[in-house]
Design goal:
- The chain is an alpha+beta fold.
- It has one domain (13-281): Sandwich (Jelly Rolls), CATH 2.60.120.620.
- The protein is 24% helix and 15% strand.
- It contains nine helices and ten strands.
- It has helices at 21-30, 43-58, 71-75, 93-99, 102-112, 197-200, 249-252, 255-260, 263-268, and strands spanning 13-14, 34-37, 82-85, 117-126, 162-167, 179-180, 202-203, 211-214, 220-221, 231-239.
- Strands 1-2-8-5-10-4-3 form a seven-stranded mixed β-sheet, with helices on one face.
- α1 crosses α5 (102-112).
- The chain is globular and about 65 Å long.
- It binds 2-oxoglutaric acid and fe (ii) ion.
- InterPro entries: Phytyl_CoA_dOase-like.
- This is Phytanoyl-CoA dioxygenase.
- GO terms for molecular function: 2-oxoglutarate-dependent dioxygenase activity; iron ion binding.
- Pfam families: PhyH.
């Protein structure tokens, strides 16, 4: 007799009407490590984002852009079947609307602190036949396979990362929906082969427009696309204000974009938090401390 498969551990679903940021924080830190937000984006918005991602990545047929956690695909000469589109804020207003969606901002303010920033925003497109990734954890934990380079006793009791995946295509087992190991974020560790992530994983399933928020310390990876359709998502990394971001986002953007950015986008670009600064050249006077003691 076949072993009975346990029911899938599905990330709890919230809408704007049922949003409960305390419950979401608990789920991310102490629960499965992920939640789904539904109904944040219209069909037209998803279609607009998808068109740009397809157009930009069609041109990259040699997979020339940098990518991550794809060592096996690179060795097998198949890296062009997973394509990234970087610097999305410069490629359409829709991506600023996605990055600073009020509901995402509301969740991240509670999870990462009100002055949180964005460390990266990119698309990840897996073409039909495209490979998956190695199970991993995300920046700034992404090199935690060398834990001695991180502070002693660092742990996952509080977050240094919040990930958001906005699905542009159906995320199914066939198309390569992101795999994750529920609860693995509670003990901060980079997974290895002995952990058997592929035997223990669940999938982040959903329809175009569904948005998964997860704590990047949860073991996860893109999976192979065995279908005949593309599987793309917008992948955004949010960080506490004091973490050095993964991408130098302001440097990649036109000056005019930065000048005209909304208050939320300025915060996401890290412009509200001025450090590191050349203090020897900074305006004199007291710059930090309580206004009144
Ligand atoms: O595209 C996916 O399913 C996940 C991508 C991911 O986890 C990453 O690139 O860090
Ligand atoms: Fe990841």
């Amino acid at each position: 007799m076949n072993a009975v498969r346990q029911p899938a551990v599905v990330p709890p679903v919230f809408t704007e009407a049922t949003l409960d940021t305390d419950a979401i924080v608990r789920e991310l830190l102490e629960g499965v490590g992920a939640v789904t937000l539904r109904g944040l984006f219209s069909e037209a918005e998803i279609a607009e984002a998808r068109d740009i991602v397809m157009r930009e990545s069609n041109g990259d047929d040699r997979g020339a852009k940098v990518t991550h956690f794809q060592g096996d695909a690179e060795r097998a000469g198949r890296i062009n079947l997973q394509r990234r589109v970087w610097n999305l804020l410069a490629k359409g207003d829709i991506f600023s609307r996605m990055a600073a969606h009020p509901t995402i901002m509301q969740v991240m303010r509670v999870f990462l602190g009100s002055e949180f920033i964005m460390g990266s925003i990119a698309a990840n497109r897996i073409l039909p036949g495209g490979p998956g990734q190695e199970p991993h954890i995300d920046y700034p934990y992404w090199d935690f396979h060398s834990p001695e380079t991180h502070p002693t006793r660092i742990n996952a009791s509080f977050p240094l990362n919040g990930q958001v995946t906005i699905m542009l295509d159906p995320f199914t087992e066939d198309t390569g929906a992101t795999a994750y190991v529920p609860g693995s974020q509670r003990e901060l560790r980079y997974p290895d082969e002995k952990d058997g992530s592929f035997d223990r994983c669940e999938r982040m399933l959903g329809e175009p427009g569904d948005t998964v928020v997860f704590f990047g310390a949860v073991w996860h990876c893109a999976m192979p696309n065995r279908s005949s359709i593309d599987r793309s998502a917008i992948i955004t990394q949010y960080l506490p204000k004091f973490i050095k971001p993964m991408e130098d986002l302001p440097a990649a953007l036109p000056e005019a974009f930065v000048k005209q950015a909304s208050p939320d986008i300025r915060q996401l670009l890290g412009l509200n938090y001025p450090y590191p600064e050349v203090l020897d050249a900074a305006r004199g006077g007291n710059a930090e401390g309580r206004k009144r003691y």
